[in-house]
Specification:
Length: 53
């Protein structure tokens, strides 16, 4: 096998691993509770919107 083919296969495998890890982490955080973009424990009920004049 050519060295170029080996390098391409390694880069492709690394990319697949990276994408798979990102997908796994994004799905796993939803199961464990609060994900990255939520406002856990913050109560916005006392905040009044600003009235425009």
């Amino acid at each position: 096998m050519d060295i170029q083919k080996v390098i391409v296969i390694l880069v492709f495998a690394a990319a697949l691993f990276y994408i798979g890890r990102m997908v796994y982490r994004s799905l796993r955080t939803k199961e464990e509770g609060c994900g990255g973009n939520c406002k856990c424990g913050v109560d916005f009920s006392s905040i009044q919107p600003e009235k425009k004049k």
